[in-house]
Write a structure and sequence with these properties.
Elements lengths: L6 H21 L10 H6 L2 E6 L7 E3 L2 E3 L1 H13 L2 E6 L2 H9 L5 E3 L13 E2 L4 E4 L5 E4 L2 E2 L4 H14 L4
Parallel strand pairs: 1-4, 1-5
Antiparallel strand pairs: 2-3, 6-9, 7-8
Protein name: Solute-binding protein family 3/N-terminal domain-containing protein
Pfam families: SBP_bac_3
Keywords: Signal
């Protein structure tokens, strides 16, 4: 014959399981995390964006970034509640600044095959373009290495605003 355990034993076991779950979640930080706090810094008011001139993506007119990616960065800054501090330069210089924690985001027609993927975080491709030889390129943005909460926020924004064919 089936014998049911006393009600008290089930309560104690349930409380123990619930307590274990609470302790496990309290001991581990939220994932993803930013070791350097990039997302918090940006949300506090300043997005340090680096752009490298690249036709169809970023142009510099009168010392100001213009073009599709400059507008994308402006929209992201608005989404994050931040003002933009622009840095204009070549990709190598900008990636070094990204690594050093001096920039939060880099754009300039960077493709998913970028050689900088070992030195920077790379977003998922958010659009495609065609190169001079007629080959399709997948375009990405760069973020500081290891700043995964910020990377997630940028990708969330891109998913909400861009159409990847």
């Amino acid at each position: 014959m089936f014998r049911q355990r006393p009600f008290r034993a089930r309560q104690v076991k349930g409380a123990a399981v619930l307590g274990s779950v609470f302790l496990a979640t309290a001991c581990f930080p939220a994932v993803p995390v930013d070791p350097e706090g990039t997302l918090d810094t940006v949300r506090s008011g300043t997005l340090r964006a680096g752009v490298s001139p690249a036709s169809d993506f970023v142009e510099i007119r009168d010392g100001e970034p213009q073009g599709a990616e400059a507008m994308l960065i402006e929209d992201f800054a608005e989404h994050a509640g931040a003002e933009i501090q622009w840095t204009i330069g070549g990709e190598e210089q900008l990636v070094k600044q990204l690594e050093a924690g001096q920039l939060d985001l880099v754009a300039g027609g960077i493709t998913s095959k970028t050689p900088w993927s070992e030195k920077a975080g790379v977003t998922r491709p958010y659009r495609t373009a065609t190169d001079a030889e007629g080959k399709e390129m997948k375009i990405v943005l760069l973020v500081p290495p290891g700043e995964n909460a910020f990377l997630s926020e940028v990708e969330y924004f891109l998913d909400q605003t861009q159409e990847m064919p």
